[in-house]
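Anyone opening a protein record will find just a pair of labelled lines. With that in mind, the following record should read easily:
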Amino acid sequence: MSAMPTDDKQQLIDWIEADRDMLVEFLREFIRRRSPNPPGDTLEAAAHVMQALTANGLDYKIIDPNKVMPNIIASIEGGSPGRHLALNGHLDVFPVESDYGWSADPWGAEIRDGKIYGRGAADMKCGTTASLFTYIYLNRMREKLKGKLTLVAVSDEETFGPWGARYLADHHPEVFGDCCLNGEPSGMGSLRFGEKGPLWLEFAVKTRGAHGAYTHASPSATKIAVGIITQLEELSDMEPANLGNLEALIRDAATVIDHEFGDGASRIVRRVTINPGTISGGVKVNMVAADCTFQVDIRVPNGLTDEDIHAEVKRILEKYPEVTYKTLIYNPPAWTDPDTEMAQIVRANAMLVSGIDPVPVISLGGTDARLWRYKEVPAIVYGPAPRGMGSVDEHVPIEEFIHVVKCHVLSAYDYLTRT
């Protein structure tokens, strides 16, 4: 049975309930402020966040090494010294290749059956809205807080680019604080304490090429590419180092992982995955292709490194002198102690709000929370389920959105009122 909220926490819940319609409309307008990355222009979405801060009398600063990808930073000091909590969310979203398959306008924020549809509804304008209003509501109680609260709303997350949280990590480490709470998709039933690491590789195949009827005259660059892509699937057989007690934790969470992330998700948490995201080759159907380039998104589980992957890739390429490759991005897998204080706080507040105890999990996708973990700062991710994330009909149920807002507000309050 969940505990009763204190007077202050009940006040926070009451404010959120009173603002329910406003919060929903804020999120809907946030979705309508298109911010696909690429290309990455988040100016309209950032203006929406800045307008909310200004309307509540809150100052902020913009750090924008790329002028169309602003990062919004705002901080308040509590009434007494204490710890520093960072609320991290991003403004950019996946692109929409076409509206094919969507049952609603991808940028319309339509409400249907109690759900808000649109690109970014789950990833992660729901979570960023929770961070923003956590900051706004706790400002009303700032004299009761011990320490400092910082809103870190960034751009350029979807491509792991250099203009967002990575830039802040290198140039403004003061915003990282002592702990991070992030609202990326997790599902109400799980919270993310770790994540796999993305390794993006680009392969280039070059041959002499020939007339399409003269297949004896030159190897086909596209045919070689297909062969390599097929063999790269062998990486999924690699065995990561055993994580000790975490192995049982992840195994026991399998049902929850599949429920929140889709059937089969639990089977690949501890496996290397390979996704050939793009491929381009050839000039004409009746020519043997002389060039082919393809990019592969490999997700590295905790217990393996990029060096382990490169060794296997080089082994595969030994038979293909026509092929070169390079690394586009690598972010090592990382995790926070699943029993860290913020994880316990979030679990307690999810129980308080909805009677749900979220299970700690390692996630499949990457988040900016990794940058806090690289600095050995605890980072916990708790947000909506990834329904339609990067696909069609992305959406968030309104009740789930309100649940996430409440959990973030109450958890930040707890963290900043403890001694």
